[in-house]
Amino acid sequence: MAVNGKIQELNNGSLATTTAIIKTKRFDFELPEERKRFNHIILNYKSGSAVSVDIYVDGSASSSQTLSYVSQVTVGAVSKKINVTGKTIELKVSSSDNVFALESLSIEYALIPRTP
Fold first, then answer.
1. Is 32 helix (H, G, I), strand (E, B) or coil?
2. Is residue 98 part of a domain?
């Protein structure tokens, strides 16, 4: 299963060094009580500098993992494998490039069967 989101281009129009930060909502995939194994984070983006993705599980204030995506001058999809479990997931995507476009992101997951 996967969830997709459409996100518009973020361009601060300044040559000053600033970091663009995009925070997602808390995804529970309409199954708030079910545990999930999150498998992949797929970004479709362009950025002249590396892109970081911090992963927050079950409302934690601390990230459980940080992914680093390489810079790319044209929009393209890059998938990173993760092995994180929880009921909910939030992402914080950041780039220090002055022109950063995040076209979409996908989160792939599988339900963890309940034990009787």
1. coil
2. yes
Residue at token pair 């940080």 = 66
Where in the sequence is the domain holding 6, given as residue range(s)?
A: 2-111
Number of domains observed in the structure of the chain: 1
User: How crowded is residue 24: how many other Cβ atoms within 10 Å of its Cβ?
Assistant: 17
Question: Does some domain include residue 116?
Answer: no
> Which H or E run contains 85?
strand 72-86
**58 Ramachandran zone, left/alpha/beta (phi>0; psi -120 to 50):** left
- Tens digit of each residue's pLDDT (9 = 90 or more) over 28-70: 999 999 999 999 999 999 999 999 999 999 999 999 999 999 9
Which CATH number characterizes residue 22's domain?
A: 2.60.120.260
Answer for the pair 54, 91: CB distance below 8 angstroms, yes or no.
yes
Alpha-carbon Rg for the chain in angstroms: 15
Cβ atoms of 112 and 33 within 8 Å: the answer is no
Statement: the pTM of the whole predicted model exceeds 0.90 = no
